[in-house]
Structure formats: structure tokens, C-alpha cells
Write a structure and sequence with these properties.
Chain A is α/β, with parallel strands linked by helices. Chain A contains 25 helices and 19 strands. In chain A, strand 3 and strand 4 form a beta hairpin. Classes of the chains: A alpha/beta (634), B alpha/beta (587), C alpha+beta (160).
């Protein structure tokens, strides 16, 4: 590839790549483009195999040059994947299997006939959607800021990124004064997307103001919240965008080196990033004298190794420095003394992904999106008991109700909504009364939770909130680094109390101690992990106190989740007497009674069965095997 | 130094800029409890959370051990919120701590116990499971009990800072975190020097010396002739165990106490120190004369010897074969002394009171297992004295027993300080070479070798360069230089503990919270204060050179012959293990 | 337990890969874990010798991070995701079933060295929760009753 040596060459390259992209997506000469979703969910369903199949078919039919096929980033509508999209018609095929590739090819590519059965069908209206924009899931979203390029460009081809506008923002920034760039980011109102929501421009300002021979930009890609995959999708879908954001920041604060810290659990993201960095270097867009200016910048990748606490910025720095991921006391803050003792700014992946938009379109344009104090968009990984599990990007200010019901498609199986957990193990549960809250940093905190990095887990009536608190505390205990005593010992004690409660041995005194402990851990811990670890407990106690009371006073789990407090029961009136449950019971604790099932002759060997609770291990096999719905949780 | 104006508890103060809140508060007269901070306020961990205070305008409580003061800061220590928070931190630590305070050896010097009292920790708070404990009593010198560890990390830092070998480290994560050598090995199965520097900084009973008081009791009970000897460094610090200020000499009272403890004889190891000088100076002369391996390196620090065998076995030929003084003493007691008194050596039990934990290991080395039968640290001696009801303050000044092995010179006294052995040896070597008595020696720091001091002597026109170092982190550069064949020195003194034996692993603990009558900077001055006790004692001696020790002269004349004789070699010299395994196949 | 010379060569090569990087310990250990399979004390001592980092620090790092293992992992590493989205869909029960059938606790390896059971923290496949990943192959929406079949799939590969 020919190096891009200055702004003029970049503009020209940008223009030519843009027209290539245009030719690809809006072909008027009969050429077709097939893109296959390469997001993790789809990859797990073998979308790579689908791509391979298309590539094979293109070759077999000698259509190279007329039909292209490549992988793209996450479409976001994960429950309906794998996705295949055909251009220029923008037809979107859902739930595609490898076997379907041939039909799509022969029908749509060769004959121009849409394969109707693979189109998305709206569950309410029963209407088929030909294009992405027709689908309700996408209507309220704004997927062109942080998720810019996802599901469009080939993340492994830098030219497509450039065609979509990459590096134009950097080019603009390089011709500004670094302070002007910071001012623009400040004006935009961008706040950290990692969870805390600290104004990004201010962080950059601190580091900018410290005089030092060496400074570092660090990108926090240690997305550890269970159930969160926003950053992963951003890097996998358009790594160049994040690189560009990092470079703009490097210019603004005076850094020559940027470090990506990516969790080891994301090998695809790491590969795509490595590849993107290499391609940038080949084009001279990373290295010395970028675009013919004095600005030199290099990107490096460092991997995590399975420690949630390394998402905490100072623990992350220690990890890069080859140490145990234990946080540092502050002051001094990283902006003054960070990586290897030098001024550093640590920003989340999504935060950086927002930066090119701000520089390219201007802070004012960005500030038009969102609410008064929370500008821009937020990417959420919507999961749990919701129909449309997937990756969404919405402008700040969209309500929780819209997120869950309009975009999310509501709760499956006609179950009742109970809560939505945001902020992962650092956040809290929002309930029915909060559904009309516009999503923004301050509103969510006021409602008892926090924005977090974007994980949003929906829970229904079958989830026990005490169990949820226990789940998060188990996670925290596993991931606590162990440095400071309130977190190391306090969270363990909380878990022991929660276990006691869910085992049916809890007392009212335990509840008081739990609350007291939660407050101690919150106020005494050294870092954000400890300081926010009690949030799930405090939040569920505040909103679902009656569930706690039921566990303690009535020794019952209203959601029938806590094994010690629930029992599988066979409803005699529904039991068909087939004995399937008893045959599969691993504890041999299902008894055949003498009673004949309703409506069955006594001559048949069918008898009503009964579960003897003494040896029952609550595995639930009986319930899953019963074809008559006769077994319930009590 | 720029000053800042701050308010503590509503009162105005002016302090140096750059101090932490903890340091500033201490100077202004407020003791904020802390456990992981060691040196007056300077702490890099902030992990115990026992030092939390309120600062106006700060988001939440602040760890005073790391938070720097700035102009106009308003600090509140005694608000209900801060008091309860500090108490909660300590109570949580206590909930995961083996609370057998009544039996714990650290009782009386335990910082956790003291801080618990300060914060008003309540009983039975936050009870629950305990981190699985490891109790390591395999090593003769020091023991480790993780059930008492509060993960302050001081020992890890200390080992790294003093010895550079980082034996201890954190292991595992979260509630299962412990502090240990790798693979949770015993100190005995890892390249630990057993120097005890870690014991000196541990705030709880997690690290202690391996007590041998019971061995002494058993010997007394069995009717053995229990002979005690004391190292010079012990007298420089023992008075501290009884409330005296650091730097108070305790020789006379110590001897009086030993007399009242029922020992058969009370000897001064300094006698043997003089003996060591005779042998070592002779060895040096021989090497210089016969172009033997130079530089010669001293061998009286067992911590250093352990380090040598683990990490620098190629330098073994350099090290003097002299045993350390107390081992020589033990050997002489069981031969020369026993013979002269017609005693069966098997009836003799030699106890050494040492400032050192490594000597507990040394006395049972396979090369010399019978010289000394038990080693007690300065701290253990104090325990024994208190246990036997002896009131230190009312003790008279008494003298060591003068029985064949009684006399000692000032040269022997200064063994306890870094540079002391060197100076003592040079006094004798100089005399032998020139016939004149040696003057003062001036050590100067070596440029480029931090932690090493050198001096040059002019002996009859020949230049003799010597060097001293203490603490192996300092010593490593010197040893590397010797290893590479680039050493300009003829004689090198190496002490395992930074500052020498006065700062040994068995010395009284120096913990500011237990020393309200000492200056705030005591951690920076205590070594010099203890050293001055020995230097003053040296100056007060009539005899200041080992070769002028009459009892030593008699020993040679009547028994050993001369330095380096066959008998002297047999009794007073040892050898080293060039194949010592760092991580033997045990746990 | 001395290292074989081939192992010494392999580890040394890995360490040299990063000789121009600042504080490369994490990268070295990641590569060793991936290429050598595990990081026992002998390997740590070699890394210590080559890098100058005290072995106690290396040991502290190896025991801190979940990805690093002191013992070899099984031939098939079964990862059951316990991320929130999978958890609320019952992945804990799936994990318990694997644990029961394989007779090992999470983090442990079966005696025959075939299976290691690990807890995964969100692979980002939330749409196909509960997800189980075995040596990179992802099984979507795993039910408790499928667990035995999945295990047998691998056992039969080994002729068991």
C-alpha cells in the first residue's frame, strides 16, 4: 500500500475509498455485495462457515469481480442472528444457517428473488421486514456514533474504514491547537463510558497541563462486567475508529504512545485490533510525522489475564507494569503519575469511539444528541429475560421502558417484568416505577443504580432478587483483588450472610448486619470495585425488601429459585401417571402412589406420582421431562 | 521547605508541604491509628483502611497515610463517621484473625492489639469463615503463621528493600490471599536468609522468631551446666525492652539479670570476638603473604552465609573459614573450659543470647552442630527476665564472670555495628604488620556503589583497600564486583542486616506507637543510637585490641598454640556448602 | 524437577520475544500459558533468571490471574459462562451438572487429564445463553439434560 504522507493525500484517498464503498453498497451496474455478521454471537453460530460458503459459491460461479462477500461487525440484533445482508437492495436475512447460503445465492444473487422465509417477521404485526430500518428493534436506535461502521464496513480492511470517513477527524484535529481539541471535547459534554461518567475533556485537561517528557494514552478494554459486550463489539466491528479516537487524544494531551489493554477472553477483538494497527502503520497513519505533521504516535496492545479488577484504572496500570492487578491509592492520580510513573489518561473503548464523531461533526452537533447533562449516545448490551437480546446504541434520554419493550421487544413467555440491572456488579436494580426514567448518568444514580459500562440485564418474575444479590456478591468475592480489608473480608462476610439467607437460615439480625456491612464496605474500600460492590445488595434491599423478609421470616423464596426454600411438587390433578419423572430422577425420590390419574382406567399401569422432598436435590429434571406440565415449583 | 496552613479538628497548624495527613497529624500531636504504614507516615499501600479521616470537600473518607496535605485543608479525625469507619476496618481485620492474644508471643508488642484498643474494636464482630491458614515452623530461625497475617505487605517490602531477594510475596487473590515464599513453602525450603528483618516490621504475630526458651528450661531442669554468652549488640538494646530510651546501655544490668536467672556461668561473646579476630587476621595475613584468594570476606554473619550459599556459591573460596564468635565460644567452652574445670562436655549446655534469628539456624548447621545448644534473641531474654520476676530497674550493675574466658577488648565490642569487625581486624592486622597500634579508621562512601563504604590503609608503604557493607541489597553490587574479578579490595566485611547486628532480626522492636517518649524520627535515628552504646563502651575499655586480650593470649599459650594451628583449625574453623539447594524437593 | 532442554529453549525464546518491551511479564506469561500449557515453579524460576524479576513476584502474578495455571489443563477445557445474562437463564445448573458428572469442581482437572472445568465470565454470546465453550467451540443454549451427551461426545473421541 502506498503511504499517505499528508492531508491532501488523505483527502484524496478518503474520496476514492468513499466512492469505492458507494460503488459497493449502491451499485448501479448490477454488482452485488454480501456482508455476513461477524459479531461473537453470530460467530458462535458459524457465520464464518456461511461466509466460506458464499466465497465458494462466488468462485464456482466465476462471479469474482461481480459479487463480493465479507465479514462485518455486530448487527446487534443477536437473538436473530446469524445475519446476511445483500446490497444494494439492503435486504436483511436473519437466522441464516450454512445450508441456507446456497439458496440465498441461487435465489437472490443469481435471480434477484428474495428468500422470503429468511426475512425477519415482527412477532406482533406478523409483517415481514425487508430492510434493517423496517425492524422495530432498530427504529429507536442511533447506531452511527460509537457503533459507527458496525454491520457496514469490513473491519479487516482499512480502506473501507477510510471510505467511511476514518482519519478525517484526526486530520482536522492535527490542524488545531491541542487545547482547542480539548475544548471541543469539553464542549461536547462527553462523559466516560466505562461507568463513572467523569467528563472526558477534564481528564484530558489534567494530563495536558502536566509537563512531562513522556505521556501515555491508555484504552481500557478490560470489559469485565458479566453480560457486557459493548467494547468487544466496537473493537471487532470498527477498530480503526477507536484507534483514531486514541490518536486524537494523544495529540491533545501530548502523548506519543497509546496502550490498548484488552481482556484475554477477547481473542477476535485482539486480532482485529492488531491487524488494524498494522494496516495503519503500513499506510503511515501510525508512526512518525503523521499526515506530514510533527505528531508521531504508536499503538501497542497489552492483554489481560482474567481479572475483573483490572478494569479499575490503576489496577490496569499495575497489570501493564507486570504486577498483580491491585489498585493504587490516589493521590497521585494517573493524570499526574500513571503508567510507569508518567502522566496518563485511561479511557474506556466506547469513550474513545465517540471522539472521532465529535471532532468530525463538531461538539455542537454532538451535544444535540442526548440530555442536558448526558450528551451523545450509549451502547447497551441488552440481555436476560427480554425477547431481543443484543447490542443496542441509543441516544441518552431514551427511557428504560423504550429500551426494554420497544427495542427489547418485551419479556418472553408472557412473564412479568421485575427489574433491570444496569452497571453490572457495581450497579443496582431498577424496577417498574423507574421504567419511564430517561436514561442518563444522573437519573440512573438518582434511581438507585448507575450507568455502568452498558450491561443491562432484564429480570422477570422467575428471578429471585436475593439470589441475584448473591450472584453478584459471589462474583465480587471471586474477583476482589484482596488488597484492602473492607473489600477482601467484608464482601466475603456479605456472601456468607446472603448464603445463610438463601439457605433458609437467615435472621432479622442478619439483615441488619448485611446493611451495616454494605455501608462499611462502600465507605472504607480503597477502589471503585469495593466502593460499589455493595450496590446490588443495597438496591435489592431497597426495592425488594419483602423478598428478603420472605426468605427470613417465612423461609420461602417467592420466585422459587433458592433451592433450600423451594420444592418441586407434582400436581395430582395434572399428573398423567406415566412415571417419566421417576425414571429420570437421579435421587430416586419420586414415589408411585396407588392413586389412579384423573380420567384414566385403573387397569392401565398409570399411577399418580409424588415427590418425596427428603432426598430431592432440586435438579429439576422431573419438571423438564414432564410433558403434561404437572410439576411446579412451590 | 514550603509551608501550608491546615486545620485539624478545628485548630490551625502550619506544616511542611508534601507531608501526608498522617505525618502532619503526628507532628501536630494527633495519633491516627494505622497498620500498614510503617515509616512515619510514608506508605505506598493504603490497604488496612484503619487510618481513615474526613477531609472537607473530599468525596468520601480519605486514607491519611497517603493523602498529601495542601493549603487550606480541613481535617476531621474524631467525627462519629471517621471513628466508626476506622473501628469497622479494624473489626473486619480482626474477624479474619486468629485471636489467641493471651498465648501469642507478640502480645505486648502487637500493633494490631494496640490499634484495636485505640479504635475501641468490639468483640465477635463480622464473624465468619477464616482464610485457610498455614503455620510454618520448619525453619529454625523464623516462623510464619498466616492466621495472624493482616496482609499489610511490610515484610514483602522489607525483604526486597533490605536484602533484595524478595523471598516473600502475595499469593492467590481475594479472601484466599496469603503472604508466603513461592508455592507456600517453608522458609526452610526456600533461599531465605532467616535474617529476621521481616519479623522486625511485622505488626502482628504472623512472623516471629522460633522460640528456644523451652530448650533452655529443659536443660536447666535436667541439671545441666547451662552457660550463657551474650553478643555485643544485645547490650546495646536490651534496656529498651524494659522501657529505657533507645541508646541506653544495659550491660551491667543485663549481666546482673543473667546471674539471677541461674546460669552456671555468664560470659561475654566479646571474648570470642577477640578470638575470631586473631584467627581472621591471621588468615588474612597468610592470604596476603601467599597470594591466596583475595579479597577475604568476613564470615561471622550467618544471614550473609546463607545468602552466600544460595546465591554466590562461587565466592565461597573468598570467605574466611572462621566460625562466628559465639560458635567459637561454644567450641572453646566444651573443650578448653570443660577440661580446665574437669567437666564432661555432655553436661554442658551453651546458650547464646544474640540479636539475630539466623544464628538459630547457624547453631544447628551440619558442619558444627555441637558448639552451641540454644540461641535466644534479645527479645527472648527479656521475656525470660520478666517471667522470672526480675525487676530490671532495681538491678545493680554487675560484671561478666572472669573465669578463663572473661576478658574482652573494645575491638570485640564493636562487632555489633557495621564496620566493627573490619575495624577490629585491622587493629590487629596493623599491629602485626607494623608493630604499632592502629589509630582511628575513616570509612567513606564508595562512589557508584550505593551502600558500600571503603577505606584505604597505608601499611608500611603498601596500600590496603578495605570495604564494608550491610544488608544484601547493598552488598550485591560489591559481590558482583568480586565475582567479575574487578574488586580492588583486600578485605571485605559483609553483615546480613542493614546497619549490622544492632539492627538484627532478634532485637527489640522499634515501633513508634509503643515509643511515645522517643522523637518522631526515631526510625531514622535508632541505629545510630544503639551503635553509640557500643562505640562508647569501646572507648571506655582499657584494652582495645584483640591481640592484647590476656585471656585470649592465655588460651593460645596454654591450649591452641597459635592462630591457625591444627587445633585452632579443628575447633574454630568451618566450611560451607557449595551445593545448597534453593528450592529443595520439599514443601 | 529440572526442565528439559527443549522446554528451556522454548521458554527462553518466548522471553526474548519481548526484550524490547517495557515490563513485559504479562505478555511473557500469556505466551507461556498458551504455548507451554502451564506455568509451574521451575518455569517461573527460569523466567526470573532471564528477566531479573524476583520469582516471588512472578508467582504472585501467576496465582493472581485466572488465566494462568500452575498445573496443566485438561485436553478439553470446558468453560461454562456464568455471566449475568447466562446466569439468569440457568447456566449455574449447567455448571453444577458438569461438575457432578465429571466429578470435579470448577478450576479442577479430571484425574485422567481429559477435562478441565472452568467458569467463564461472559464471552459476549448473550443471545445464545447459556453458553458453554469447549476448546473454542461454542455450544449455544445448553440445557442441563444435554450435558451428559456433550461429555460423551468428547469421551467417544478418546475411545471411551
Amino acid at each position: 500500500m502506498v503511504k499517505i504522507a499528508n492531508s491532501e493525500q488523505l483527502i484524496n484517498k478518503s474520496k476514492s475509498c468513499a466512492s469505492c464503498l458507494d460503488a459497493k453498497f449502491n451499485a448501479k451496474d448490477g454488482k452485488r455485495a454480501i456482508v455476513v455478521c461477524g459479531g461473537t454471537g453470530c460467530l458462535s453460530a458459524n457465520s464464518k462457515g456461511i461466509l466460506a460458503e458464499f466465497e465458494k459459491l462466488i468462485k464456482e460461479n466465476h462471479l469474482e469481480g461481480k459479487v463480493t462477500a465479507n465479514i462485518v461487525g455486530c448487527f446487534g440484533f443477536c437473538s436473530q442472528g446469524p445475519f446476511v445482508k445483500i446490497f444494494p437492495e439492503q435486504t436483511l436475512y436473519t437466522k441464516v444457517k450454512v445450508e441456507d447460503a446456497k439458496e440465498i445465492f441461487e435465489s437472490d444473487i443469481m435471480k434477484g428473488e428474495i428468500v422470503e422465509r429468511l426475512l425477519f417477521v415482527d412477532p406482533q404485526t406478523k409483517e415481514k421486514a425487508k430492510k434493517q430500518g423496517d425492524i422495530n428493534f432498530y427504529k429507536l436506535q442511533k447506531r452511527d456514533v460509537a457503533l459507527k461502521g458496525n454491520a457496514e464496513i469490513n473491519p479487516e480492511n482499512i480502506e473501507e474504514a477510510i471510505g467511511a470517513g476514518a482519519f478525517l477527524a484526526l486530520n482536522k484535529a492535527l490542524h488545531m491547537d491541542p487545547q482547542e481539541v480539548i475544548d471541543e471535547v469539553l464542549k461536547s459534554g462527553l462523559r466516560g463510558r466505562g461507568g463513572a461518567g467523569f467528563p472526558t475533556g477534564r481528564k484530558w485537561q489534567f494530563a495536558h497541563d502536566v509537563a512531562s517528557d513522556e505521556k501515555y494514552v491508555v484504552c481500557n478494554g478490560d470489559e469485565g462486567d458479566p453480560g457486557a459486550f459493548m467494547d468487544r463489539s466496537i473493537i471487532e466491528g470498527n477498530p480503526i475508529n477507536v484507534i483514531e479516537g486514541m490518536m486524537i487524544e494523544g495529540f491533545a494531551i501530548g502523548a506519543k504512545n497509546g496502550y490498548f489493554y484488552i481482556r484475554a477472553e477477547y481473542p477476535v477483538a485482539v486480532e482485529r485490533l492488531k491487524n488494524a494497527i498494522k494496516q495503519c502503520e503500513e499506510l503511515g497513519l501510525l508512526g512518525d510525522n503523521i499526515l506530514g505533521t510533527n505528531f508521531s504516535f504508536r499503538c501497542h496492545i497489552r492483554l489481560g489475564a482474567g481479572a475483573f479488577v483490572c478494569g479499575e484504572e490503576t489496577a490496569l496500570l499495575n497489570s501493564i507494569e507486570g504486577q498483580r492487578g491491585m489498585p493504587r491509592p490516589r493521590p497521585p492520580f494517573p493524570a499526574v503519575k500513571g503508567l510507569w510513573g508518567k502522566p496518563s489518561v485511561i479511557n474506556n473503548v466506547e469513550t474513545l469511539a465517540n471522539v472521532p464523531f465529535i471532532l468530525h461533526h463538531g461538539a455542537d452537533e454532538y451535544a444535540k444528541i442526548g440530555t442536558e447533562k448526558s450528551k451523545g449516545t450509549k451502547v447497551f448490551a441488552l440481555g436476560g429475560k427480554v425477547n431481543n437480546v443484543g447490542l443496542v446504541e441509543v441516544p441518552m434520554g431514551v427511557t428504560l421502558r423504550q429500551l426494554i419493550f420497544d427495542i427489547g421487544g418485551g419479556i418472553p413467555n408472557n412473564k412479568k417484568f421485575k427489574a433491570i440491572q444496569t452497571g453490572g456488579p457495581s450497579g443496582g436494580c431498577l424496577t417498574e416505577k423507574d421504567l419511564d426514567t430517561p436514561i442518563d448518568y444522573d437519573n440512573l444514580i438518582a434511581a438507585g443504580s448507575m450507568m455502568g459500562s452498558g450491561g443491562a440485564i432484564v429480570m422477570d418474575e422467575d428471578n429471585c432478587m436475593v439470589d441475584v444479590a448473591k450472584f453478584y456478591m459471589t462474583f465480587i468475592c471471586d474477583e476482589s483483588c484482596g488488597k484492602c480489608s473492607p473489600c477482601r473480608i467484608g464482601t466475603k462476610r456479605c456472601l456468607e450472610l446472603l448464603t445463610k439467607i438463601t439457605d433458609g437460615k437467615g435472621t432479622m439480625a442478619d439483615l441488619d448486619e448485611l446493611k451495616n456491612l454494605a455501608n462499611v464496605i462502600k465507605s472504607n474500600s480503597l477502589c471503585g470495585l469495593g466502593q460499589t460492590a455493595p450496590n446490588p445488595i443495597l438496591s435489592t434491599m431497597a426495592s425488594f425488601y419483602d423478598e428478603y423478609l420472605a426468605h427470613i421470616q417465612d423461609k420461602k423464596c417467592p420466585a422459587h429459585v433458592c433451592k433450600s426454600l423451594m420444592q418441586y411438587k407434582i400436581l395430582p390433578e395434572k399428573c398423567a401417571g406415566c412415571g417419566m419423572c421417576a425414571r429420570n430422577c437421579p435421587a430416586n425420590t419420586i414415589i408411585k402412589t396407588d392413586e389412579v390419574p384423573v380420567g384414566k382406567p385403573a387397569t392401565l399401569p398409570l399411577r399418580i406420582h409424588r415427590i418425596d422432598p427428603t432426598n430431592c436435590v432440586k435438579c429439576g429434571l422431573c419438571q423438564s421431562n414432564c410433558r403434561f406440565g404437572a410439576i411446579i415449583k412451590d | 521547605m514550603a509551608k501550608v496552613n491546615i486545620k485539624i479538628e478545628g485548630h490551625d497548624y502550619q506544616v511542611d508541604a508534601g507531608l501526608t495527613i498522617l505525618e502532619a497529624a503526628r507532628i501536630c500531636g494527633y495519633n491516627i491509628p494505622s497498620l500498614c504504614a510503617f515509616n512515619n507516615g510514608k506508605c505506598s499501600r493504603a490497604s488496612c483502611r484503619a487510618c481513615l479521616v474526613e477531609v472537607k470537600g473530599a468525596r468520601g473518607l480519605v486514607a491519611s497515610c497517603v493523602y498529601p496535605v495542601n493549603e487550606g485543608m480541613e481535617i476531621t479525625i474524631s467525627s462519629q463517621k471517621a471513628v466508626e469507619a476506622r473501628r469497622a476496618s479494624v473489626e473486619l481485620i480482626l474477624s479474619n484473625h486468629h485471636k489467641n492474644c493471651l498465648q501469642c508471643e507478640k502480645n505486648g508488642h502487637c500493633e494490631l492489639l494496640e490499634v484495636s484498643k485505640m479504635v475501641g474494636a468490639r468483640d465477635h464482630m463480622y464473624e465468619g469463615s477464616q482464610t485457610p491458614a498455614t503455620i510454618d515452623t520448619l525453619a529454625p530461625g523464623i516462623i510464619r503463621d498466616t492466621s495472624k497475617c493482616i496482609l499489610c505487605g511490610r515484610c514483602i517490602e522489607r525483604c526486597k528493600e533490605a536484602q533484595g531477594i524478595s523471598i516473600l510475596g502475595f499469593e492467590n487473590r481475594g479472601f484466599n490471599t496469603i503472604v508466603s515464599p513461592i508455592e507456600n513453602r517453608s522458609f526452610a525450603n526456600s533461599p531465605c536468609m532467616q535474617c529476621g528483618q521481616c519479623v522486625n516490621v511485622c505488626p502482628t504475630g504472623a512472623l516471629m522468631e522460633h522460640s528456644e526458651i523451652d530448650k533452655v528450661d529443659a536443660a536447666m531442669k535436667a541439671g545441666k551446666k547451662v552457660i550463657v554468652q551474650t553478643a555485643p549488640a544485645v547490650r546495646a538494646a536490651i534496656a529498651e525492652e524494659f522501657g529505657e530510651k533507645i541508646g541506653t546501655p544495659g550491660t551491667g544490668k543485663m549481666v546482673a539479670a543473667l546471674h539471677r536467672l541461674g546460669f552456671y556461668r555468664v560470659f561475654d561473646t566479646n571474648f570470642a570476638a577477640d578470638l575470631t579476630i586473631m584467627e581472621e587476621a591471621h588468615e588474612l595475613m597468610e592470604r596476603i603473604k601467599n597470594k591466596g584468594v583475595l579479597p577475604q570476606i568476613t564470615s561471622c554473619s550467618p544471614g550473609w552465609i546463607n545468602y552466600l550459599e544460595y546465591f554466590y556459591r562461587e565466592l565461597i573460596p573468598h570467605v574466611s573459614t572462621c566460625k562466628s564468635p559465639h560458635m567459637m565460644m561454644g567450641a572453646i567452652i566444651k573443650t578448653y573450659f570443660a577440661e580446665k574445670h574437669e567437666l564432661d562436655p555432655k553436661d554442658i549446655f551453651v546458650v547464646s543470647i544474640m540479636p539475630c534469628t539466623a544464628k538459630k539456624y547457624e547453631r544447628q548447621r551440619k558442619e558444627m552442630p555441637n558448639d552451641v545448644d540454644a540461641v535466644l534473641t534479645t527479645r527472648e531474654l527479656a521475656k525470660l527476665i520478666k517471667r522470672n520476676g526480675i525487676n530490671w530497674n532495681k538491678l545493680p550493675e554487675e560484671e561478666f564472670d572472669n573465669d578463663l574466658l572473661g576478658q574482652y577488648s573494645g575491638a570485640g565490642v564493636i562487632f555489633g555495628v557495621t564496620g566493627g569487625v573490619m575495624e577490629a581486624a585491622l587493629r590487629t592486622a596493623y599491629f602485626w604488620l607494623t608493630g604499632k597500634e592502629f589509630g582511628a579508621i575513616n570509612f567513606e562512601a564508595v562512589r557508584g556503589l550505593d551502600g558500600v563504604k571503603e577505606a584505604t590503609l597505608n601499611i608500611n608503604g603498601t596500600e590496603l583497600k578495605v570495604a564494608i557493607t550491610s544488608g544484601m541489597r547493598n552488598g550485591k553490587v560489591l559481590l558482583d564486583q568480586i565475582k567479575e574479578g574487578k574488586s580492588p579490595y583486600a578485605f571485605v566485611e559483609v553483615m546480613g542486616c542493614p546497619g549490622g547486628c544492632i539492627n538484627g532480626g532478634g532485637q527489640p522492636f522499634v515501633k513508634p506507637m509503643f515509643l511515645p517518649n522517643e522523637d518522631l524520627d526515631i526510625l531514622d535515628t535508632y541505629k545510630a543510637k544503639r551503635a553509640s552504646v557500643l562505640y562508647s563502651e569501646d572507648e571506655r575499655q582499657v584494652i582495645r585490641q584483640s591481640h592484647n586480650n590476656k585471656d585470649v593470649q592465655a588460651l593460645y599459650k596454654n591450649y591452641l598454640g597459635k592462630p591457625g594451628s591444627e587445633l585452632a583449625e579443628k575447633l574454630l574453623h568451618t566450611s560451607y556448602d557449595a551445593h545448597r539447594e534453593k528450592f529443595p524437593n520439599k514443601k | 524437577m529440572a526442565l528439559q532442554s527443549s522446554a528451556i529453549k522454548q521458554i527462553t525464546e518466548i522471553v526474548n520475544r519481548y526484550k524490547n518491551e517495557e515490563t513485559p511479564l504479562m505478555m511473557i506469561l500469556s505466551d507461556i500459558q498458551r504455548e507451554y500449557g502451564y506455568i509451574p515453579a521451575e518455569v517461573q524460576e527460569l523466567v526470573s533468571m532471564l528477566t531479573g524479576i524476583p520469582v516471588s513476584e512472578i508467582y504472585g502474578v501467576v496465582t493472581f490471574y485466572s488465566f494462568f495455571s500452575l498445573t496443566p489443563k485438561g485436553k478439553y477445557v470446558v468453560g461454562v459462562c456464568l455471566g449475568t445474562a447466562c446466569y439468569v437463564k440457568g447456566s449455574q445448573l449447567v455448571l453444577d451438572k458438569f461438575s457432578e458428572l465429571l466429578k470435579i469442581k470448577p478450576g479442577e482437572t479430571t484425574e485422567d487429564g481429559l477435562f478441565t472445568l472452568d467458569v467463564l465470565r461472559c464471552v459476549g454470546a448473550c443471545a445464545i445463553a447459556p453458553a458453554v465453550s469447549i476448546n473454542g467451540k461454542v455450544y449455544p443454549m445448553v440445557q442441563v439434560k444435554q450435558v451428559e451427551d456433550i461429555i460423551n461426545e468428547y469421551k467417544s473421541k478418546e475411545g471411551k
